[in-house]
Design a protein that fits this description.
This protein has 368 residues and is an alpha+beta fold. Helix content is 36%, strand content 22%. Helix 4 (201-218) runs antiparallel to helix 5 (269-280), helix 4 (201-218) packs parallel to helix 6 and helix 7 (308-332) runs antiparallel to helix 9 (347-367). It is built from 9 helices and 15 strands. The protein is elongated.
Length: 368
C-alpha cells in the first residue's frame, strides 16, 4: 500500500535508500500489508514507522501496479493529522512536497508511475483559499490558481507593470495551468474579518498609504482592455477597485498582500478611497458616529488632497455603482456571478447603503 499524502495541492514523495536496486528512486511512502491486516490500517502503520507522522486515509487512487511475483501496489489518498513527516534513514533519506507541475521533477519508481495521472488531477483541485470575493480560488503550494476571462491580459499587464516598479504586496504572474487557470504567487498574512472585527488604526493607515503608492505607480499605465469592471471616464490612475479587508492580508501592521485583482480598471483616486472607506472604516456596519468620523478623517489625512466629506460622497456613489454593475453581471450570468448571489448580492450592498444613509447625518455632525 502506498499513501498519496496531500496538503494544499501538493503530494509527499519519499526517496528510498534500500534495497540497492531501488536506492535514489522516489515513491509514495507505505509498505507491505501483513497477513490478515486491514490495508488502510497497514498504510497508516507503515507511514508512521517510516516518517514518524500519523495520517488519515481520505480516499482511494484508482488502479494498481505489479511490483514482483506475489505483490501488487495499491494507493490511497491521505492527509497528515499529527506530526511532521521526517525520513528515517533505514527506509528513506529525503522527502519532497510536489505540486501538479512538479510530479516529473523526480525519478519515480516504476510501480508508482501509473498513479501519477490520477494524482495530478487531485492536486490540481488544490485547497480552498481564504479571502477574495469574486473568483473561485485554490491554493497549490506557494501558488494561487484563479479563473481567467477576457480581462485577464489587461490585469496581467498591470501586475507585471507593478512588479517592474517594485510595488509591494502584489502577486507575480507565473503563467497558466492545465485547467487554463492563471497561476499567481501566494501572499501569506492575516486577513481581518470586518463583519466581526475592525482594522486597527495602524493597519488602516498602512492600507491607505499602499493605495496612494499604487496610484502613483499606475498613473502612466495604459492598456486597451477589456477590463472586467467598467473604466471611469476621466480616469487618472488604474485602481485595484476592490480594496477591502477580504482582499488584503497583513503582517503586523504592514500590508503583506493585496489580491483579487480581477476588478482592476482605469478610475480615479477618490473613487478608490470611497470604496476603501466603505469597506475598511467601515461604513456598512453600525458604529458610534464619533468613531466613524475619526476613521474617515484618518483616511483623508493619510492620503491627502481630499476632505472627509468628499470621501463620504464618493463612497455612496461608488458603492451604488457597484451594486448596479453586479446586478448586470447576475442578470447576464457573467463569470463569478453565482458566487455573488451566494453571498446575497446585490441586496446585501443595497441594504447596507440604505442603512448608512440613515446614519450618515450623525457622522457629518461629528465631522463638522
Amino acid at each position: 500500500m502506498g499513501a498519496a499524502i496531500v496538503h494544499e495541492g501538493r503530494v509527499l514523495a519519499a526517496r528510498r535508500t534500500s534495497p540497492p536496486e531501488l536506492a535514489g528512486g522516489w515513491e509514495l511512502p507505505g509498505g507491505k500489508v501483513e497477513t490478515g491486516e486491514d490495508p488502510q490500517a497497514a498504510v497508516v502503520r507503515e507511514v508512521e514507522e517510516e516518517l514518524g507522522c500519523l495520517i488519515e486515509v481520505t480516499g482511494d487512487l484508482a488502479g494498481e501496479a505489479p511490483i514482483r511475483p506475489g505483490y501488487t501496489l495499491r494507493a490511497v489518498l491521505a492527509r497528515v493529522v499529527d506530526g511532521e513527516p521526517v525520513p528515517r534513514e533505514s527506509e528513506h533519506d529525503a522527502v519532497r512536497w510536489l505540486g501538479p507541475e512538479e510530479l516529473e521533477d523526480v525519478d519515480w519508481l516504476e510501480p508508482d508511475r501509473p498513479f501519477l495521472a490520477g494524482l495530478r488531477e487531485v492536486l490540481l483541485d488544490g485547497a480552498p483559499l481564504e479571502g477574495g470575493n469574486v473568483g473561485v480560488t485554490a491554493r497549490i503550494g506557494h501558488t494561487v490558481r484563479r479563473q481567467t476571462g477576457p480581462w485577464t491580459p489587461a490585469v496581467h499587464a498591470l501586475l507585471r507593470h507593478l512588479g517592474e516598479r517594485g510595488m509591494p504586496a502584489t502577486p507575480k504572474v507565473l503563467g497558466t495551468d492545465d485547467r487554463g487557470r492563471e497561476i499567481l504567487t501566494f501572499l501569506p498574512g492575516e486577513i481581518v474579518d470586518v463583519d466581526t472585527g475592525l482594522l486597527s488604526a495602524a493597519r488602516l493607515v498602512a492600507l491607505v498609504e499602499w493605495a496612494r503608492t499604487l496610484h502613483e505607480r499606475t498613473a502612466g499605465f495604459r492598456h486597451e482592455g477589456p477590463w472586467r469592471y467598467p473604466a471611469v471616464e476621466g480616469a487618472t490612475v488604474v485602481a485595484h477597485n476592490d480594496l477591502a479587508p477580504y482582499n488584503v492580508c497583513f503582517s503586523g501592521d504592514r500590508v503583506a498582500g493585496v489580491f483579487d485583482w480581477d476588478l482592476a480598471a482605469p478610475s480615479t483616486p477618490l473613487r478608490e478611497l470611497g470604496l476603501l472607506a466603505y469597506t475598511c472604516v467601515p461604513l456598512f456596519r453600525p458604529m458610534a458616529p464619533e468613531v466613524v468620523a475619526r476613521r474617515v478623517r484618518l483616511v483623508a489625512e493619510t492620503y491627502g488632497g481630499f476632505s472627509a466629506h468628499e470621501i463620504l460622497d464618493a463612497a455612496e456613489a461608488r458603492v451604488r455603482h457597484s451594486a448596479a454593475v453586479v446586478t448586470g453581471w447576475i442578470e447576464t450570468g457573467a463569470p463569478g456571478a453565482e458566487g455573488l448571489v451566494a453571498v446575497g448580492e446585490p441586496e446585501r450592498t443595497r441594504t447596507g447603503l440604505a442603512d448608512w444613509a440613515r446614519r450618515r447625518p450623525e457622522v457629518e455632525k461629528e465631522l463638522w
